[in-house]
Amino acid sequence: MDISFALTGKGYVLVAADTTAARSIIKMKSDEDKIKVLSPHLLMAFSGEPGDTVNFAEYVERNLRLYHIRHTYPLRPASAASWIRRSLAESLRSRNPYSVNLLLGGYDTATHTPELYWVDYLGTMTSVPFGAHGYGSYFALSLLDRYHDPEAGLEEGLAALRRCIDEVSKRLVVSPGKYKVKVVDKDGVREIEL
């Protein structure tokens, strides 16, 4: 029952994910960080089966780091998203596919633009101005469609994110209590208190 949201703004990508680790009706943890920093200007919010998400996030992080070591420069967000999509598609055709949905946000230092990619467990990928995964997406996508402004500053982006979180906590029967929020911009990745 993972919930994650992400949106782009003027020079940044905001990503939020709940901190509850649960399986079926059992809550195992309430302080899980579901946003993985992949490189100084790239992060990923993941949801899916608990074992798959951690394994896949570490697999992606290690392979992107290996690419950086071999080529002396990191992958740009669009290239990283394509590689992740291909990895999920190949996994789907194996005996042990990853069941992972993710939002990949990054800041392209070459073009100085924020980028956000929506990827699902089937290896479907698209570039989006905002996105969501999990049960929270049923409520958040309509709010983001109405209130998202691609030219908004960070405070306006946080206000839109708060609207999504408030709506989920008000309308979802088993809404998670806490969220972690991270932003990636020209200065890199940092955590923000909501």
From TrEMBL:
It is found in: Cytoplasm; Nucleus. Gene3D superfamilies: Glutamine Phosphoribosylpyrophosphate, subunit 1, domain 1 (3.60.20.10). The keyword RNA-binding does not apply. The keyword Membrane does not apply. Belongs to the peptidase T1B family. Component of the proteasome complex. The 26S proteasome consists of a 20S proteasome core and two 19S regulatory subunits. The 20S proteasome core is composed of 28 subunits that are arranged in four stacked rings, resulting in a barrel-shaped structure. The two end rings are each formed by seven alpha subunits, and the two central rings are each formed by seven beta subunits. The catalytic chamber with the active sites is on the inside of the barrel. PANTHER family: PROTEASOME SUBUNIT ALPHA/BETA. This is Proteasome subunit beta. It comes from Rhodofomes roseus.
